[in-house]
Amino acid sequence: SPARPHQRRPRTPQVRRSRPALVRAGRGWRRVRPVVLPLVGLAVALFFVAPYAAMLSGSLKTDAELFAVPATYLPESWAWSNYLDVWNRIPLADYFRVSMTIALVSTALVLVVAAPAAYVLARSRFRGRTAFLGVILVTQMFPAVALLIGLYQQALFVDGINSYGVIIAINAAFNLAFAVWILHAHFSSIPVEIDEAAMMDGLGRFRIMLRMILPLAAPGLVTVMIFTFIQVWNEFVIALTLFNDPAGGRVPLTVGVQQFIGLYETNYQYLFAAALMAIVPAVILFALIEKHLVSGLTAGSTK
Questions:
Q1: Going residue by residue through the chain (303 aa), what tens digit of pLDDT does each one get?
Q2: Helix crossing, 92-123 with 81-89: angle to 10°?
Q3: What is d(CA 40, CA 33) in angstroms, rounded to the nearest whole number?
Q4: How far, in whole angstroms, is CA 115 from its chain's centroid?
Q5: CA–CA separation, 199 vs 178, rounded Å?
Q6: CA 106 to CA 120: how far, in whole Å?
Q7: How many CB atoms sit inside 10 A of residue 104's CB?
Q8: Rounded to an integer, what distance in angstroms lies between the CA atom of residue 150 and that of residue 238?
Q9: Strand ranges, E, within 91-163
Q10: Cα(217)–Cα(298) distance, rounded to whole angstroms?
């Protein structure tokens, strides 16, 4: 029998109608996107800013206005003196100094330890490397509260209660795993040919990491720095247990602020004022290096 000529299968009407519909939908979204996206962003920003606005309003009220019925959102008489009273009631400057010392030294220690460790993991191929990275990640699953009793016993054993060395070492240890993972991703995304070219020029591994790799991984270092600083700055449970010595002047800011919370009375206006002042260093740090933060979090995710 003669061969049948090749017959082209006709397109279904549904396919013919779907393409114009998709085109119209895409055009409609392009028209409303400049309006919808800013509105969504504004709504999200207001959601996160609202608690701070409430704290600012409460910090400027008198004690009578805070508990007045009906409550008012804005203060009737702006009590700016509340911020001055906070400094007179508690040694807030000393609390700032202690927290700043712990946060800066812990952040520096994390960078000094995590950078070489991440560089070795990114450039070396040894047996058990993947398992070692998994063990590092597993350490992030244990919260500080679950390990608090063990940490307290270890601090007693080395006579480290109210010791700067112990609290700095513990804070650095809890943030070390995150730092190694972030820096490992950055170092892995840097071409190995840079190391090979530097070796031909006579540089050793340490000098290559210091002079060539770390400048290229600056966004990752910035990310590790800001996250570690904020985590240590906001830490409360371990500091309350292991580093709380008012007589010796060793009280972090997060622990000292709770003095406004009493058994029978709580000075909320002073508590709000102190809490707002406590977030100022973290906000300033974030504002200064925010442009490096996004690139630091996403670098190494694609090749």
A1: 455 555 555 555 544 445 666 666 667 767 778 888 889 989 999 998 898 888 888 888 888 888 777 777 888 888 888 888 888 888 888 999 999 999 999 999 999 999 999 998 888 877 777 787 788 778 777 777 888 899 999 999 999 899 999 999 999 999 998 899 889 888 888 888 888 888 888 888 888 888 888 888 888 898 899 889 999 999 999 999 999 888 888 899 999 888 778 766 778 888 888 888 888 888 888 777 766 665 555 554 444
A2: 80
A3: 10
A4: 18
A5: 29
A6: 22
A7: 14
A8: 11
A9: none
A10: 12
Cα 215 to chain centroid distance, Å, stands at: 22
Alpha helices in the chain (DSSP H): 13-59, 63-66, 81-89, 92-123, 129-138, 148-157, 164-189, 192-200, 205-208, 214-216, 218-234, 237-242, 253-256, 268-278, 280-298
Find how far residue 175's CA is from the centre of its chain: 10
Cα 164 from Cα 250, distance rounded (Å):
9
Tokens of 277: 């002042």
At 25, list the tokens. Answer: 């939908």
Closest to 250 measured CA to CA, from 103, 104, 94: 94
Number of Cβ within a 10 Å radius of residue 132: 14
CA distance 62 to 76: 9
* pTM beyond 0.85, yes or no: no
The burial of 102, by beta-carbon neighbours within 10 Å (0-12 exposed, 13-18 middle, 19 or more buried), is given as: buried
Domains of the chain and any CATH numbers = 13-59 (no CATH), 88-298 (1.10.3720.10)
- The answer to whether the beta carbons of residues 245 and 162 sit under 8 Å apart is yes
Alpha carbon distances (Å) from 290 to 58, 99, 295, 296: 29, 22, 10, 10
Q: Which residue has the tokens 């260093």?
A: 281
